């Protein structure tokens, strides 16, 4: 008498359990899905890079502006450090280097805000299409933003560094391992910046107008990321607080690794903690948006 099979069992697929190990059809299907997902996100990153590479003139204008403001900031910092030598543990050269390094981060990390078209898509109703794409909305936009950041780092990040080296003379890491650490910290800083900007953009679903929250976000990021002055200038408990906030993971942490005042491991651990926390909040907010999307005018 032949053995009876479950009526819902497909003979071509193994049952769940020990038989679904390496080499089985189930394992191959999971591996294929992961490869397809990686290919999708790689294509999205390349798309983000190519989309922003279209606007070369705008990127060069932004690089020129960052360089000019970098010279102005550096002049102020030189006067400050000459009046207070050794302030915050930096000498004059380190302070000027910090200035131009953070100027180079403005474009890739969008320290002044923006970089995402999500608020406009929420107002027009296109968010409904975004939520049914074959990939999570947050990861989809993150992949595009990483491609954008790569282009901005090359076109808007390098010119301020070159201007600082030509006008004032800045220090550069000599150890290749530190360069790898700097690159890893910059990438992690972009992820933290994206996660924060994503949450700010999703607030449009409840506020209907993003201008107020965008201005508040820009002020917080400008003051607390290290873009204006090193966060080590803040005294006592206030300094410990601002260096523990997520904005410090955007500019201060990679700048410290560049200057050699912090190890790449500790900076990456700090950035990874905040990146994971903010991305988790973004995933929860996206789930809430799926249940209630408030679209202005749509």
From TrEMBL:
The chain crosses the membrane at residues 53-81, 87-106, 153-173, 179-200, 212-237, 257-284. Residues 1-21 are annotated as: Disordered. InterPro entries: ABC-2_transporter-like. Keywords: Membrane, Transmembrane, Transmembrane helix. Pfam families: ABC2_membrane_6 (PF06182). Residues 11-21 have a biased composition (Low complexity). This is ABC-2 type transport system permease protein. The lineage of its organism: Bacteria, Bacillati, Actinomycetota, Actinomycetes, Streptosporangiales.
């Amino acid at each position: 008498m032949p053995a009876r099979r479950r009526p819902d069992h497909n003979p071509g697929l193994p049952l769940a359990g020990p038989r679904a190990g390496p080499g089985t059809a189930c394992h191959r299907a999971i591996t294929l899905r992961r490869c397809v997902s990686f290919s999708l996100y790689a294509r999205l990153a390349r798309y983000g890079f190519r989309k922003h590479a279209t606007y070369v003139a705008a990127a060069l204008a932004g690089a020129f502006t960052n360089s000019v403001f970098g010279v102005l900031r550096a002049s102020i910092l030189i006067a400050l450090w000459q009046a207070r030598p050794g302030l915050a543990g930096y000498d004059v050269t380190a302070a000027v280097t910090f200035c131009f390094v953070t100027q180079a981060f403005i474009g890739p990390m969008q320290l002044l805000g923006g970089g995402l078209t999500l608020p406009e898509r929420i107002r027009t109703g296109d968010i409904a299409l975004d939520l049914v794409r074959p990939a999570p909305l947050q990861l989809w936009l993150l992949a595009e933003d990483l491609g954008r950041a790569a282009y901005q780092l090359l076109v808007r990040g390098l010119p301020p560094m070159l201007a600082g080296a030509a006008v004032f003379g800045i220090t550069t890491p000599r150890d290749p391992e530190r360069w790898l650490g700097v690159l890893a910290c910059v990438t992690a800083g972009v992820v933290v910046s994206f996660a924060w900007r994503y949450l700010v953009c999703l607030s449009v679903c409840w506020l209907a107008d993003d201008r107020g929250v965008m201005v508040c976000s820009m002020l917080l990021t400008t003051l607390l990321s290290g873009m204006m002055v090193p966060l080590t200038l803040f005294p006592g408990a206030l300094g410990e607080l601002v260096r523990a906030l997520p904005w410090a993971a955007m500019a201060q942490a990679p700048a410290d690794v560049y200057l050699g005042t912090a190890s790449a491991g500790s900076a990456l651990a700090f950035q990874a903690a905040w990146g994971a926390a903010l991305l988790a909040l973004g995933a929860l907010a996206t789930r809430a948006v799926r249940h209630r999307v408030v679209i202005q005018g749509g």
